[in-house]
Write a structure and sequence with these properties.
Layout: H1 30-33, H2 42-51, H3 54-70, H4 74-79, H5 81-119
Helix pairs in contact: 3-5
Length: about 120
């Protein structure tokens, strides 16, 4: 190899190319570190989240509001646009949960069938 070939083979460094250093230590506190100090105590929020996620908390509140609103006269319920919107949102979220459950169930059933076919002689 001739030392002057480096003239015909320059190394080009594009942006974001070159050596990479990556910290792979899992940090799970990023979500609660984003809570502004005036909004609350991140440590308390993290502990409260361990008790019940925000989705669980909102689900309980939604159920309570719908149940309380259903105790009102039928005329008041029919005229309440926010109640109708809350029912619609709640119904859509429940449908999403059911769809995801069905999807997971179908995936598990497919995996079970695959495992059973591998277990049988000649499979």
């Amino acid at each position: 190899m001739f030392p002057w070939f480096w003239l015909w083979a320059p190394q080009l460094r594009l942006p974001f190319s070159g050596d990479v250093a990556q910290d792979i230590e899992p940090r799970l506190d990023w979500f609660f570190a984003g809570i502004k100090p005036q909004a609350g105590n991140a440590r308390i929020e993290a502990r409260a989240f361990d008790v019940a996620s925000y989705g669980d908390q909102l689900g309980v509140i939604t159920q309570l509001l719908i149940e309380m609103a259903e105790r009102q006269p039928a005329e008041a319920q029919a005229a309440s646009a926010p109640l109708q919107e809350l029912r619609r949102i709640h119904g859509e979220i429940e449908a999403i949960k059911a769809q995801e459950c069905d999807r997971e169930l179908a995936e598990l059933q497919a995996r079970i069938r695959l495992l059973e076919s591998r277990r049988q002689p000649g499979g």
